[in-house]
Predict the 3D structure of the following.
Amino acid sequence: MDMQRIREKVLAGERLTVGEGLLLAEQGDLYQLGFLADAVRRRKHPEPLVTYVVDRNINYTDICISACKFCAFFKAPEDPDGSVLSFAELGEKIEETKDLGGTQILLQGGLHPDKPLEFYEEMLSFIKGYEIHIHGFSPPEICHFAALSGLSVREVLVRLQQAGLDSIPGGGAEILCDRVRQETAPRKCSADAWLGVMEEAHGLGMRTTATMMFGHVETMAERIEHLDRVRALQDKTGGFTAFIPWPFQPDNTALSDIPKTTAFAYLKMLALSRIFLDNIDNIQASWVTQGPKIAQLSLFFGANDFGSTMIEENVVAAAGVGFRLSEQEIRALVEGAGCVPRQRRMDYSLV
Amino acid sequence: MEQMVVAAGLGDILEKIKGSERLSSDDGVRLYKSNDILAVGYLANLVRERINGDRAYFIYNQHVNYSNICTNLCKFCAFGKDKESPHAYEMTVDQVKAKVRERLSEPITEVHVVGGIHPDLPYQYYLDMLRGIKEVRPDIHIQAFTCVEIAHLAELAGKPVDQTLKELVSAGLGSIPGGGAEVFSPRIRQRTCEKKLSGEGWLDVAKTAHRIGLKSNATMLYGHIETVEERVEHLAALREAQDETGGFLTFIPLAFHPKNTELHDLAKTTGIDDLKNIAVARCFLDNFPHIKAYWVMIGPKLAQVALSFGADDVDGTVKEELITHMAGGETKGVMADTELIRLIRDAGRQPVERDTLYNVIREY
């Protein structure tokens, strides 16, 4: 009976409560979730367009004081293998990106123990010289810069924006619930702080994305709490362009005993995200964790965007997941699903 | 959710399926051509749950590819090699026995034996191989020799197919795998595997096997140059043969892997292609008890999802499967049974370990 009511609400475009979201997550089968998510996607995107961005993930450093248990990428500050990219290396990577038709770079790194804010400002100014969109510095980095510099989050954001930062990636959200953060990433910014950075950024006119990394120590109720917090902030600011749920990849992490989220569970969570986040326009498929076959199928479970071509990707690769796709392959997968592939920019305008 | 199927323009097929009515070839073509994989999958899932409930079967088996030397050299195959090729190999009966002996400690219930059409191994070799495997592992079920190989062995023996099969059975043959069916259409065989046994010949061997009490499987190699109509024709021919004999256990759609084949310019199949072939087969082959999503071919992720798109079998914990891997199949050749069971459970299905003939060995 409750499921019937939930179905009717979704099809009528009404918002689900947290309780209804949880019920749907726990009782909905693959087809109930898929059909509802597909209906929402079609309502939001009546044209069968599937978008993607051509960009490159540049990780300026892997040195990180956060030591999150779910991360296979970071190097502790005392580890001699840790490094920081030189500006020359950055420049080369950007040139290559532009040569491949790239419109932006995703710039993220570990929480380096002692680089001053000026270092990041210089990095942004340097990159801006290449006239490319900079999607950079997830909220934990911003919080870290603020703590190191003694400035407020807002002051940090203003200075970075002035130095060339265009938009902010949704990384570091993990699960926006402090119980989970305490257990897996105690040194990373709190859920409130993550949302606080995004709210300030939206207030300054920067668009951002939001992510969720699920499938580790969180409960289903905590996932819904995450979705609810993102939805609530989006009601306030409207600044999120897209939501990207992706499953924890346990290999080479401190949580490697946790079984990997299966494709079936991924598709259900993707669909639930599409259904619950009624105020976010775009949902991205995570081909880098799911591979081409499931990513293509994602287009029927709520996703309308293939994310980035990721000319370079290091973080997921560190967890032993090796999926790579070219722009051409992405386009072929989209066409194979009966949709039209289109390159976009960060703000979802078409190239 | 039925309204979604109706909205996808498949309401009439939904009614047929609910009424257990047989689909026409036109219906099959429409399902293939539908862009709504959820609606097609939903229909297949209805059939799947009616025939097999929540069960998802797997088998603990061992693959032995005794030789890759082949006179057919089909264009879609990366496994077969000319006898003179530096990559050609053949195993002696002792080597086959050693392979089986290597895994005696594992609870394997089936040895799956397939090879090329070898130009000069004698008939006796095949009989000796079957007997040899049985010597090492007397309780094992041997599923061996596609219909194409069986036709070749009958020729070597100079005897009719039924008599050849009876001799193979006396030597230890338990059932016949589904390979070599490819696409039955003469147009496709002419263009991709002109030296291979014809579609009609393949069906004759299968039906002959069924008549002497052997069970067999059936396959279709999709994703190369065949049309949707040719796929449906293939399915229709299988359905008709099954009406006649009832000897097919499982239909296994096989995704074409272009790498290292003469057709390497073709694209790999996508997830939607793979699911659609499973789903349409489940809807169309109403007289086949089982549809298999062969995880080595399509990857464990998609095989898991396929359990909701018509498949009720994921094959098993395979070792040393060479044919797909020569063609660049990217999945690891082995999966632990615990992982397979977890994937099945997580998809809301009940894991059932089976033997070759679908006798239940253990329910999890």
Remarks:
- Residues 210 and 245 of chain B are 6 Å apart (CA to CA).
- The mean pLDDT of chain B is 94.
- The radius of gyration of chain B is 20 Å.
